[in-house]
């Protein structure tokens, strides 16, 4: 996997992925930024949520469960001093579908957390990671 990041101006950078996508990153005004894009650590957190959500949906679909939606809300704390690594991350899953079993959703989240989601497993080296979820019948 490869990526490139190019400095645009002040605290703005353009990230370009190997798959051909781009994203603007920027800092807050107090750091010379203009608040035009995500902060890099927000991207790390968002990417991790995307990684685990992808796993959960994939696992449920592979198990032939009727999943129609998956949303992950993430709350995180960072260290007060440099390096300001994540110290606590909580994932709250809202998984919707028809006839979804609580146990199947729980197992999919557990498999993602313990085996498949490289991002959350990596962040788990510095942060306490917790999960909870709700199943919504549609």
Automatic annotation (TrEMBL):
Domain of life: Bacteria
Matches recorded under Pfam families: OsmC (PF02566)
Alphabetized Gene3D superfamilies for the sequence: 2.20.25.10, 3.30.300.20
NCBIfam families in UniProt: PRK10738.1
Protein name: OsmC family protein
């Amino acid at each position: 996997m490869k990526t490139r990041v190019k400095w645009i101006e002040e605290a703005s950078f353009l990230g370009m992925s190997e798959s051909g996508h781009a994203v603007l990153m920027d800092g807050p005004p107090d750091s010379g930024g203009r608040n035009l894009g995500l902060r890099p650590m927000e991207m790390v957190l968002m990417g991790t949520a995307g990684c685990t959500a992808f796993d959960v949906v994939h696992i449920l679909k592979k198990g032939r469960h009727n999943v129609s939606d998956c949303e992950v809300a993430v709350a995180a704390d960072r260290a007060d001093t440099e390096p300001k690594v994540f110290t606590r991350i909580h994932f709250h899953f809202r998984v919707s579908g028809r006839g979804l079993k609580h146990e199947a959703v729980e197992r999919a989240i557990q498999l993602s957390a313990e085996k498949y989601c490289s991002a959350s497993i990596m962040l788990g080296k510095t942060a306490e990671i917790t999960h909870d979820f709700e199943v919504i019948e549609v």
